Amino acid sequence: MTATSASLTPPADAIAPVRHPEAPAPGELLGAHYGHCFGCGDGQPHGLHLAARAGEGVTVTAEFTVREAHQGAPGLAHGGVLATALDETLGSLNWLLRVIAVTGRLETDFARPVPVGTVLHLQAEVTAVAGRKIYSRATGRIGGPEGPVAVRAKALFIEVKVDHFIDNGRPAEIQAAMSDPDQVRRARAFEVNP
């Protein structure tokens, strides 16, 4: 086992994830956590506009259509864009735990090329929780939710307080977000989680 893989393996004392009682219901569209997010926001013209839905337990599904702006090689999705789609899907799991968390590590495997125009079907699940650490994995398939795997990832997310963003974000964007009642409501819902 490599050092990278070891850091994505939950410790022996990790616990099974528990869906928060106020988490969105299975099948519910999760929406964007921030309108200008490159992964899920609709305020980014070349963003992924990823649409994630709550699944059963602590799982989500999502879809993302590869557009011309997402190319790396001619006619094919850029690997970094595919990694972003996986990261965004994995991050959506935090809606089900009702925690604010950021990516600590993301290990991605690319199994096959993804052509422009393809709908990537993503599935993600939390596998374990250990203190502030959230362990998860995801797959991206082409041709449908049961199609061949094109990309897969394992990730470690770290729970943070909303101050992480306030202290480190650009002041203009922080102020705009804090002036948006919907954004404030989302942040408070997560911040008051015991």
Write structural notes for this entry.
It is globular and about 45 Å long. It has helices spanning 3-7, 79-92, 94-97, 163-168, 171-178, 181-191; strands at residues 51-54, 59-65, 101-110, 119-130, 133-142, 149-159. With 194 residues, it is α+β, with helices and mostly antiparallel strands. It is built from 6 helices and 6 strands; from the N terminus they run H-E-E-H-H-E-E-E-E-H-H-H. It has 2 domains: 25-159, Thiol Ester Dehydrase, Chain A (Roll); 161-194, no CATH class. Strands 1-2-4-5-6-3 form a 6-stranded antiparallel sheet. The N and C termini lie far apart (35 Å). The model has no long low-confidence stretch (mean pLDDT 84).
Would you summarize the structure shown here?
This protein is an alpha+beta fold and 194 residues long. It has 6 helices and 6 strands.
List the helices and strands and how they pair.
Elements: H1 3-7, E1 51-54, E2 59-65, H2 79-92, H3 94-97, E3 101-110, E4 119-130, E5 133-142, E6 149-159, H4 163-168, H5 171-178, H6 181-191
Antiparallel strand pairs: 1-2, 2-4, 3-6, 4-5, 5-6
